[in-house]
Amino acid sequence: MIGRLNHVAIAVPDLAAAAAQYRDTLGARVGAPQDEPDHGVTVVFIELPNTKIELLHPLGDGSPIAGFLEKNPAGGIHHICYEVEDILAARDRLRAAGARVLGSGEPKIGAHGKPVLFLHPKDFAGCLVELEQA
Ligand code: CO
Fold first, then answer.
1. How many domains does the chain have?
2. How far is the CA of 72 from the centre of ligand 1 (A)?
3. Does 130 qualify as catalytic in the annotation?
4. CATH code for the domain in which residue 72 is found
5. pLDDT tens across 23-65, in order?
6. Domain limits at 59?
7. Other CB atoms closer than 10 Å to residue 24's CB: what's the count?
8. Measured in angstroms, how far is the CA atom of residue 97 from the centroid of ligand 1?
């Protein structure tokens, strides 16, 4: 059911430092920071030949990654995103298998303008999983 790895999201305490490290030390193609107030994050997109990395930093009050950074002050992998062809069919199949879909269970429009859902990390080996309809 899942297809390509769309992105790996890494929460970082210092967005400028992390972006500079990916650009200068790792030699990656690093974009400019983009504020996404609807998602409570500022994001830096990094294009790799086969996937993307997203550096996430909290934006505003009540950011969904603020708690993660409190527990992981040096930063860390926050979630991984897999592509699916049909997000509602994927949701229904996962629910039938006992997996927990976060929030209302209705897809939201994600950072790339496409419908996304998140799956409970305790159901997936401790990893928060995002599904994006490709
Ligand atoms: Co994501």
1. 1
2. 18
3. yes
4. 3.10.180.10
5. 999 999 999 999 999 889 999 999 999 999 999 999 998 899 9
6. 5-133
7. 10
8. 23
